[in-house]
């Protein structure tokens, strides 16, 4: 469905270099990225700010042409065959809407039907289905400008899916949504992928989206692919360790246990990071022998810890992060 081989995208930017002089510098926004996404996959595309995610998506949707390398989506060259490709893919940007601001949602969706030349019968059927799944009925006749963010996002999803695309590309679809709207959108995407078989590429900073939805994640950092595989394997390969939260009877200086670093102290509570190689039971025993302890809890590193270590580059891999 998606094939990216050694894709590079550079931008030339002019920066002030002194009072009157401007120097040209080249930014390698995407710097030799290769990956494939097969039909029916649900893939998360992650990376810190400025890593190159939007630039990749713009190359996949034909908005930008790669400086070198090849990008193919649904067997097409997105930049050259942008209009034909548009009939096969749906794109949703969480930060902006593709709907007509002054029109009621229903009319906006009718215009989308004309743009994509969806036959009237198919449109009716599809609209009825999407209205049910996305719970659009209460606000179908409301102008888009009056919709809440969550309602607008559901409207945008409907607009992107009216022409039944094979691939849906989402850029931050749950940004700014409350927990209930997030749950509706996530539940919908899950069904779209599992029941309809729509391939989905999801860019997000919301790790809840990724944990709930994506069987595979791609992590991009400084324009290069830093990881490609499952979330479980990412957890296992990037040793973010476990966190031991110790409540002392009284506040005190950081505890001292060989091989363990105290990351944070807040009154009587201290956070100790345990690498995988350290036996937690032995640490607990050593602490109990030397300090007066009120409570101890052991927590697995969560996905935020794992990614923070991957982005900072201070992880230790057990194996090749790109070997899936
Ligand atoms: N049109 C442009 N001209 C110059 N530089 C650009 C342009 N678009 C992106 N860049 C630069 O390319 C790099 C990658 O940007 P990109 O928007 O792809 O990152 P991102 O991963 O989507 O970030 P974010 O999570 O903040 O949205 C950044 O350094 C950015 O400043």
Concise overview:
With 324 residues, this protein is of the alpha/beta class. It is 32% helix and 30% strand. It has a 6-stranded mixed β-sheet, with helices on both faces. Strands 11-12-10-13 form a 4-stranded antiparallel β-sheet, covered by helices on one side. A 3-stranded antiparallel β-sheet has the order 2-1-4.
Q: Average the pLDDT over all residues and give the rounded result.
A: 87
Provide the low-confidence segments as ranges: none
Number of strands: 13
Biggest sheet overview: 6 strands, mixed
What compounds are bound to the protein?
A: adenosine-5'-triphosphate
Widest sheet, order of strands: 5-6-7-3-8-9
Roughly how many Å is the radius of gyration?
A: 24 Å
Question: What is the CATH class designation of the largest domain?
Answer: Alpha Beta
Name the structural class.
alpha/beta
Q: Span from first to last CA? A: 18 Å
Architecture (CATH level 2) name of the largest domain: 3-Layer(aba) Sandwich
Looking at this structure, what is the CATH superfamily of the largest domain?
P-loop containing nucleotide triphosphate hydrolases
* Estimated helix fraction: 25-40%
SSE string, helix = H, strand = E?
EEEHEHEHHHEHEHEEHEEEHEH
What is the number of helices?
10
**Shape call:** globular
Q: How many domains would you count in the coordinates?
A: 2
Keywords: Antibiotic resistance, ATP-binding, Nucleotide-binding, Transport
InterPro entries: AAA+_ATPase (IPR003593), ABC_transporter-like_ATP-bd (IPR003439), ABC_transporter_ATP-binding (IPR050763), P-loop_NTPase (IPR027417)
Main location: membrane
Domain ABC transporter: 2-247
């Amino acid at each position: 469905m998606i094939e990216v081989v050694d894709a590079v995208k550079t931008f030339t930017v002019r920066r002030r270099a002194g009072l009157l002089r401007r120097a040209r510098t080249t930014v390698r926004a995407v710097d030799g990225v290769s990956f494939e996404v097969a039909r029916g996959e649900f893939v998360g595309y992650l990376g810190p700010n400025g890593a190159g995610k939007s630039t990749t998506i713009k190359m996949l949707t034909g908005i930008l042409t790669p400086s070198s390398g090849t990008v193919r989506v649904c067997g097409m060259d997105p930049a050259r065959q942008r209009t034909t490709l548009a009939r096969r893919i749906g794109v949703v940007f969480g930060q902006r809407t593709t709907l007509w601001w002054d029109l009621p949602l229903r009319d906006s969706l009718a215009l989308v039907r004309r743009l994509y030349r969806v036959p009237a019968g198919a449109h009716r059927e599809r609209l009825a289905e999407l209205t049910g799944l996305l719970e659009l009925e209460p606000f179908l006749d409301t102008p888009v400008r009056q919709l809440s963010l969550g309602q607008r996002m559901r409207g945008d999803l409907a607009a992107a899916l009216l022409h039944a695309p094979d691939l849906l590309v989402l850029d931050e679809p749950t940004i700014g949504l409350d927990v209930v709207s997030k749950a509706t959108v996530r539940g919908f995407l899950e069904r779209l992928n599992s029941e309809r078989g729509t391939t989905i590429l999801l860019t997000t900073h919301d790790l809840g989206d990724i944990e709930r939805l994506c069987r595979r994640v791609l992590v991009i950092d400084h324009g290069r692919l830093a990881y490609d595989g499952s979330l479980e394997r990412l957890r296992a390969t990037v040793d973010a360790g476990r966190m031991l939260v110790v409540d002392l009877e009284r506040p005190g200086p950081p505890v001292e246990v060989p091989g363990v670093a105290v990351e944070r102290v807040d009154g009587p509570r201290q956070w100790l990071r345990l690498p995988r190689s350290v036996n937690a039971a032995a640490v607990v025993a050593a602490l109990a022998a030397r300090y007066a302890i009120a409570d101890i809890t052991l927590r697995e590193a969560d996905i935020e810890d794992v990614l923070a270590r991957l982005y900072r580059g201070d992880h230790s891999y057990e194996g090749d992060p790109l070997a899936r």
